[in-house]
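Summary for the funding panel

The consortium committed to producing paired sequence-structure records for every protein in the target list. Below we show the first two records in order, beginning with the earlier of the two.
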Amino acid sequence: MSHLSWKELFPSKLSFVIFVSYILLFVGQVFDPTTYYLLLQLRVVVTGILFQVIFSKTLSRKQWLSLIILTFGCMLKQINFTEDKPSNQKSTSFDIGLNGVFILIQIFCSCLAGVYNEYLLKKQGADVNIFIQNIFMYLDSIVCNVVLLTVRGNLLSAFTYNSLVKVFHYKVLLVMFNNAAIGIVTSFFLKTLNSILKTFASALELILTAVLSYLLFSIPIYLNTVLAIATVMFAVYLYSQNPVSNPPKASRPDKSDQASLIKSEE
């Protein structure tokens, strides 16, 4: 690993983008859930744009069409066709002003983090062990959170006995291990596949969540969910006709491997 730079090991730009994205999550509190999640579905198209820019690839018309249909299908899931909205509920409106700009920044940062993470795994940091990359990326996140706690004056209170007891509750630990597993799986996903396919995999959660919710909790499946599932399935089928190919860069052999190769040739 002597030929690797600290920039490759410590992706501070990526962690800062993720940090900003999480900070802007609080902006969503000023919107009703429908408007907020409708706007968030734009990340599918934004991911496609950033993928083209960062990897200097051009998506085909069929690939773009599948992404747009996928976005529409995800939006359908957030629209309720059956129930009247209570009078005290915030109206779903696209007159969103400055807060809407912040949401668009959040979407951009979230998508940029995903695509740039794929770039680090496949291009700039292709020779770094994937687990080492995960360690340094999460160390960056820890540093950002410590800075935020310090600025807010909550650093010491976060490490009191009562706070730590709540953190180490078994339910919280299960969530932590689950999210850690998701992060590791995502890194392997981006290393071997691509961020465009990841958006389709995320959209397929609509189908699995709806079916499992019905089977496990008897939660009814409404018209918007049925339409969303049908639209997402069509988008997946259309994408499968012409999927994006973005293989990882071949890693450079270590010095020991090069020496053994020279000996074998001799």
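The next record, for a separate protein in the list, is shown here:
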Amino acid sequence: MSSWFVWLLIVLFCIGGVEVKTHFLPSINELELVFISNHYILYSITMFLYFFFFVLILVGLAFAIAWAITRKASFSWIGQDVLYVKILLYSSQYYLILLIQVATVLLCCAFVYDIFWVFLSPIIFHQSVMIAVAKGNNSGGESIPMLLRFPRLTDPWGGYDMIGFGDILFPGLLVGFSLR
């Protein structure tokens, strides 16, 4: 995988982490309906919310840029996991599964996909393609940020435990379906 493609994914990951912050707040249109009787209160609350959204986007942008700059440091897994969890929470709220058959097919396909690329690809390609891509072995040392990383505290070599986006999102969509 080329390094420019990994950089594109890093930039999109940062943009997604910044943009997702504003979706967890109530929309301004919902608040306008509540305060429609008094225009002064409506105007001041609307201006406050616009300012709050602007500050929130600046804080998210600063956080994403700080993570992108320090992404190779030993503590960068914290920032990556924060951005990742925000994107996962938004995705699980935005995407809805309407049929249990769709959830079953998605989970079965994800299971077969993971088994092939982690365990069967070393037989064909002489290395696990999924692990090589996640670690950035073939892209100049740049790794794809679309996974949760946790350091192994007892590992003398400083390795990480990793779990991918789909391994959390697809079961989360099924849980969301079962809660509705």
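Regarding this second record: The radius of gyration is 20 Å. The mean pLDDT is 81.
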